Amino acid sequence: MDQALDILLQTSFWVAAVRIASPLIFATMGELICERAGVLNLGIEGIMTVGAFAGWFTVYSGGDLWAGVLVAAIAGACFGLLHGTLTVPLGLSQHVVGIGITLFATSLTYFTYRLALPEVTTPPKIVPFQPLPIPGLSSIPILGEALFSQTPLTYLAFATVAIVAWMLYRTPIGLALRAAGENPAAVEAQGISVTGVRIGAVMVGSALMAVGGAFLTMSAFNSFFFEMINGRGWICIALVVFGSWRPGKALLGAILFAAFDAYQIRLQQLSGGVVPYQVFLMMPYALSILALILVARRATYPRALMIPYQKGER
Amino acid sequence: MTLPDAYVLRLSGITKRFGPLVANDAISFELKRGEVIALLGENGAGKTTLMNILFGHYVADEGTVEVMGKKLAPGDPRAALDAGVGMVHQHFTLAENMTVLENIALGTQSPWKIRLDRVAARRRIGKLSSDFGLALDPDATVASLSVGERQRVEILKALYRDARILILDEPTAVLTPSETDALFRTLKLLVAQGLSIIFISHKLHEVMAVSDRVLVLRAGRLAGERATEGSSRSELAALMVGQHVASPTVGEPKTGSVLLELKNVSTSGQGSSTRLDDVSLVLRAGEITGLAGVSGNGQATLAALIAGTLKPSSGQMAISGAQVADWTPRAALSRGIGRIPEDRHAVGTIGDMSVTENVISERYGTPRFSRRGFLDWRAARNFAEEIIRDYDVKCPSPEARIRLLSGGNMQKLILGRALDADPVIILANQPTRGLDVGAVAFVHRRLLEARERGAAILLISEDLEEVLTLSDRILVMSKGRLSSPSKRGERSIRELGELMAGQGEAA
């Protein structure tokens, strides 16, 4: 029991938690932007796969790491444009389109991977982002080390939260975005195109999801393999709800979930095989459901979420 | 400064069709600076459609709109806003989880600004509020505001954008009398500043009170134009309805046996419903029993009890002298209770389903509409067409989604659905709320016919005039209790008012 608690005091545990949280933070912010504008983006899992491959492949083909991130974002935005076109002006079911995008994007990625690397059996590695300790801050015990000796992409993830929060609550465009998710008629009555706002939000959101995927290949596993997103996208959907559609709370949720995940890995090692390891694998998900029940029951969700808006209809 | 053109707005030949329905048929008119035009018409006459074209929500099939002598780009609210047209929609276009300031500032600053200028917005809102008597807290969320306050936000939204022409769509439909007075005062201030106003309404006395000129729309056409001064309410009413409306004649009741009896019924008052406290009620065949009262005093609870959606915590309920144990909505229907629900949008109909589906929704399981578990669509469609014909419902087709219908037509359809089964007991809850003169007369006539036929009718209404006109006996509900019944003309309006306020015997 003591050992189980000792884990919480290990620096390596917190470093791992922050690292595991980073891709979730990107993708959660992406989903949050989409949903705040009134569009549920279930393409997230597939778009993360696209980003993971696009970023990795850019670097593998000789590109710069940051070029990889940019390519991933652009690829994500393209799928966002597809999703947005189908769900916003055409008003198709957001569930069906989202699942379709996930299936399509995932298969297309695997297909492209096979086309590009037909002969390969073990996925090739790239030189990933390296940890960039921030002088001074990174020498603070535990917390400082956990937060400030990470790769630049993790810092970008945290910066994204601040930028998204500022954008949503402090800028005119954020105001329009939130209003589009609350009451699209209010947006139109003020002379703004609901379609424009929503498609823009889905594109930017999808770009962030793709960067979240790219984090996995460029800052964690260093190579691309099938099934690597492994449900992280779905977790992000839950994190948005957990965070009551607020960036700060969603960030907290991402870190909490990542901590559960990092914790169960260490607990597995402690148990020495007495308990089947699947039980530990299950733990973060079971705890997230519990957390959702406790936290998100009374959340005020965007009123127009999942409701298509068609101009000139009554 | 004099304007080159005395007219700030000119509509020429506006025509708009929704499928086979012609909502606006070649409508032309002009609006002068500082003028208040009233657009008068029944529900479904095309008033709102016309204004939605002017504001750019819809694109007209034919015709043009000119503002200050310049042609307005069709189908673009931004163009209308930029040209100085502001619209206060009947169903407010506000984001409820956002603040007053955010709702007003939405779309007024360049989207690429890195920071929303709240300070400037707050200053401007403050100035406009005090100039026009529109007191509001800019930081309150819209969800916490009353309906009257929300309307003020809508007006401020228009003024904030320097609107010169203000369109108000049925602005008083949701207001209390004192809020209406405040609105009229604000409108006077606006006109004094040189704004022009289009006031959409179907209430004659309001039109007479605020407008300079009245345009009457009927069935999508401009039926007439009158200067308010020198015209009369009856003249306008006749123009609006197309014929003279006679108020219903109510004969002596042919009172029969007791059809519905509630004995010492109380409810637990769980949830949001008002608790009923030891209520006893008797409905007799051939009589209209009117239930007056200020909304929220338990009328909704009583209606839910009779409709079967709520169970009493104590007391007995009987139909034609027989106790009913399983008082569910289905049991209520099958025992001959016809219901006209209070909220036709939320409870009375399913907006996205067709007229046909809605008219059979209470009885789709009966042999008339289903055979061996399959729906008989031909019978259903025939039934829908029958109601459309007999109850004079204006709708494009039985396949049309019911939410496309205007309130009056929707209510006629609900009325037809309820009355077609020849119910022995009719529960009419606010049957004429929000309806125009013609539709009100229609509903009243049908209810009186049902009374002649020998049905027992419970009329729940906040409109005291309606209760007084139709009811053979009147009850007043206050704080979940019922007053003793009084016969027609037995209690004065003042006595009824005291009962409604909770003074007098019921309290």
Automatic annotation (TrEMBL), chain A:
Q: For this UniProt entry, which segments traverse the membrane?
A: 12-32, 39-59, 65-84, 96-113, 153-169, 199-218, 279-296
Identify the domain of life.
Bacteria
Kindly name one Pfam family recorded for this protein: BPD_transp_2
Coiled-coil residues are none
Q: What subcellular compartments does it reside in? A: Cell membrane
Q: What's an example of a GO molecular-function annotation for this chain? A: transmembrane transporter activity
The way it spans or sits in the membrane comes to: Multi-pass membrane protein
User: What GO cellular component term, any one, is given?
Assistant: plasma membrane
Q: Can the keyword Transmembrane helix be found in this entry's annotation? A: yes
Keyword annotations for this protein, in alphabetical order, are:
Cell membrane, Membrane, Transmembrane, Transmembrane helix
**Name the record gives this protein:** ABC transporter permease
Question: Which species expresses this protein natively?
Answer: Borborobacter arsenicus
- Which taxonomic lineage does the organism of this UniProt entry have? Bacteria, Pseudomonadati, Pseudomonadota, Alphaproteobacteria, Hyphomicrobiales
TrEMBL record, chain B:
Listed A to Z, the keywords are:
ATP-binding, Cell membrane, Membrane, Nucleotide-binding, Repeat, Sugar transport, Translocase, Transport
Membrane topology field: Peripheral membrane protein
Q: What is this protein called?
A: ABC transporter ATP-binding protein
User: Could you tell me which Gene3D superfamilies the record lists for this protein?
Assistant: P-loop containing nucleotide triphosphate hydrolases
Q: Name one Pfam family in it.
A: ABC_tran
The superkingdom listed in its UniProt entry is Bacteria
What GO molecular functions are on record for this protein? Answer: ATP binding; ATP hydrolysis activity
- Report the sequence similarity comment from the record: Belongs to the ABC transporter superfamily.
Its localization reads: Cell membrane
Q: Where in the numbering of this chain does the ABC transporter domain appear?
A: 9-244, 260-504
**Which organism was this protein described from?**
Borborobacter arsenicus
Q: Name one GO cellular component term.
A: plasma membrane
Q: What is its main location?
A: membrane
